[in-house]
TrEMBL record:
Region (Disordered): 20-45
Protein name (Swiss-Prot/TrEMBL): Probable WRKY transcription factor 12 isoform X2
SMART domains in alphabetical order: WRKY
Chain's gene name: LOC107804748
Source organism (scientific name): Nicotiana tabacum
A Pfam family the protein falls into: WRKY
Subcellular location: Nucleus
Annotated WRKY domain residues: 61-123
Keyword Magnesium belongs to the record: no
Keyword field contains Zinc: no
Length: 140
């Protein structure tokens, strides 16, 4: 044994590592991002993307895309593991509206449609029956 030398081993939380600012190069010996002391934690600025609120609805329907009053553009489709039905992705077509919609069928009951909205619209819904297309795209 080599005298009184003790090795200190700590368990790192993977989330803590991801949240840290890991701009250093591992080969340059500057690994201070994982050795930070409590006084240094206040100095680290972490930019986190704010997650948009999500709303989920289950509806019994034979059609996948239900009319919710907004206009949507399909931008993707993905095969879902353990499901016979694909998941479709939509964006609101209104300018400067960043709302997304995800539509899929419940794997246990294919008559149920799960619609998940991410974000909040910054405009009113479009009523096709008594308004022109230009009225649909006017913000409040």
């Amino acid at each position: 044994m080599e005298g009184d030398h003790q090795e200190r081993v700590e368990t790192l939380d993977p989330k803590a590592i991801i949240d840290q600012n890991c701009s250093g190069n591992a080969s340059d010996g500057n690994n201070s991002w994982w050795r930070s002391s409590p006084s240094e934690k206040g100095k680290v600025k972490v930019r986190r993307k704010l997650r948009e609120p999500r709303f989920c609805f289950q509806t019994r329907s034979d059609i996948d895309v239900l009319d919710d009053g907004y206009k949507w553009r399909k931008y993707g489709q993905k095969v879902v593991k353990n499901s016979l039905h694909p998941r479709s992705y939509y964006r609101c077509t209104h300018s400067n509206c960043r709302v997304k919609k995800r539509v899929e069928r419940l794997s246990e009951d294919c008559r149920m449609v799960i619609t998940t909205y991410e974000g909040r619209h910054n405009h009113y819904p479009c009523d096709d029956s008594n308004s022109s297309e230009n009225d649909c795209f006017s913000s409040f």
